[in-house]
UniProtKB/TrEMBL annotation:
The keyword Transcription regulation applies. Residues 3-73 form the TACO1/YebC-like N-terminal domain. The keyword DNA-binding applies. GO terms for molecular function: DNA binding. The lineage of its organism: Bacteria, Bacillati, Bacillota, Bacilli, Bacillales. It is found in: Cytoplasm. GO terms for cellular component: cytosol. This is Probable transcriptional regulatory protein AR543_13765. InterPro entries: Integrase-like_N, TACO1_YebC-like_2nd/3rd_dom, TACO1_YebC_N, Transcrip_reg_TACO1-like, Transcrip_reg_TACO1-like_dom3, Transcrip_reg_TACO1_YeeN, YebC-like. It comes from Paenibacillus bovis.
Amino acid sequence: MGRKWNNIKEKKANKDANTSRIYAKFGVEIYVAAKKGEPDPVSNSALKVVLERAKTYNVPKAIIDRALDKAKGSGDEQYSELRYEGFGPNGAMIIVDALTNNVNRTAPEVRSAFNKNGGNMGVAGSVAYMFDSTAVIGVAGKSEEEVLEILMDADVDARDIVQEDESVIVYAEPDQFHAVQEAFKGAGIEDFTVAELTMLPQTFVTLPNAEAEAQFDKLIDALEDLEDVQQVYHNVEFADEQ
């Protein structure tokens, strides 16, 4: 496990640093989560997860408040949660999660992004079985031993605990997301370097050369640039992540 989560997040953060698209996507995700239940993270666990994620990506409070106010008010947009699966070069596997208010728009756009960038869409279930839904939570300033002690004291299980750069990353079952966070908060830790519910691949592939890596990056960029796409997961490990 592990697989250098901080490298993955850093790559995404650097890419998103010069655009507001990540804020727009979080705005939609917060709105949808808030509309599923009460627009209050205390009673709405799905909203709590999204807000914790937004915090680690430094989403401005104004963006968060605007989405919550829309959910509390007269906002009546209906969004569908969709998942697409596909393939890239060298057997790469890709999962695309989307939130859309126009299902007739999203599928053709995702298919086009695959086809124009060296990939192809697969059928439902063709890729997802090779990924595990995982809670990923990171903290700074603690050792692996200290983190293990905190979790043991709180009687919380983890799949793995790994030192990655300046953080200790906890990998756990999705239903342990809040339990892990509460264990840390009980130990006086309020800030997290990462707080995600994600899809982690069971196996990784490497691409044969820099040209293939560039082509794959272009494919991922094209998918992530789509308005309706919230998350893109894949099983490619780049040379600088090994």
